[in-house]
Amino acid sequence: MLNAIPTDWLFGLGGGLLIGLGGAVFLLGNGRVMGASGIIGGLVDGSGKSNLVERLAFLAGVFLVPVLLYPMFSEVNTHATTNIAVLIAAGLCVGVGTRLANGCTSGHGVCGISRLSLRGMVATVFYIMAGGLTVVLFRHILGVI
Amino acid sequence: MMRSLLALLSGGLFGAGLFISGMTDTSKVQGWLDVFGNWDPTLAFVMGGAIVPMAIAWLFTTGRKPIVGGEFPAPPEPKLGRNLVLGSVLFGAGWGLAGLCPGPAVASLSYGGWPHWVFFAAMLTGMALAPMARAQLDSAIPAE
């Protein structure tokens, strides 16, 4: 177990670099901030009609590359809950919340913090604190997740 | 065409990074948030790793134009506000509950099984309802 931890950190760091590289391509190439919630949300509420194809192409990449990578890794388990009420409540909160805040982990977190955006930093502090409190409440006190 | 290819490349790198970093594994995300349990610091390495190339990219934008033309995004507004805070708290609560945020939700659709599709459908519903929620909020308590 102890030996497995640094490997996870290295994969985290390597994967993180790829995420940042993706954001750099979107910014330097297309002049756009790589925010997953904004890219998806613009398709859902119709506000992203003017660059529909760009959004779909981006999401196709996000969806398809893991399809190619999946067979190369053994034991990929996402450990997602099978509690439907929790999944629906969580999805609704993430959907409404990210659109209200105009960003999520990629837009506010990665792209915002890296340009020292106050909004990005404040959003990140609040969603991490809320996430931590939620896990404490629902895991350790209520025992739901 | 160029714009779409670059978007595909960017999304592909993003998807690969999310997959390799373990951020589509909900137990790693919840492990990071679970400071009173078996705390997992992996997410900090992912964030740190992502911020470095992104910060270099931002530095590179000064005095230049995007490859496809147009302009780079305007400097961020220093304006905070109720919607930013309330939205982030709501997002954080959902993130903690399921261990998924929008990027990993898309990246994990092909291999995560039905729970990921349920979460994804609920997230899209939330995104569709968001403009209404925002309007309701603004009429009840004006943002500023």
From TrEMBL, chain A:
Q: What membrane topology does this protein have?
A: Multi-pass membrane protein
Instruction: Give the UniProt subcellular location, in the record's own words.
Output: Cell inner membrane
Q: Which InterPro entries match?
A: Sulf_transp_TsuA/YedE
The record, for Pfam families, names: Sulf_transp
Highest taxon above the source species: Bacteria
- Which controlled-vocabulary keywords does the entry list? Cell inner membrane, Cell membrane, Membrane, Transmembrane, Transmembrane helix, Transport
Q: Where are the transmembrane segments?
A: 12-31, 52-72, 84-101, 122-142
What family is this protein classified in? Belongs to the TsuA/YedE (TC 9.B.102) family.
Protein name (record):
Sulphur transport domain-containing protein
From what organism does this protein derive? Shimia sagamensis
Taxonomy of origin reads: Bacteria, Pseudomonadati, Pseudomonadota, Alphaproteobacteria, Rhodobacterales
From TrEMBL, chain B:
Q: Transmembrane ranges?
A: 42-63, 84-107, 113-130
The keyword Membrane is annotated on this UniProt entry: yes
Q: Provide the alphabetized UniProt keywords.
A: Membrane, Transmembrane, Transmembrane helix
What's the domain of life for this entry?
A: Bacteria
Name of the featured protein: YeeE/YedE family protein
* Species for this entry: Shimia sagamensis
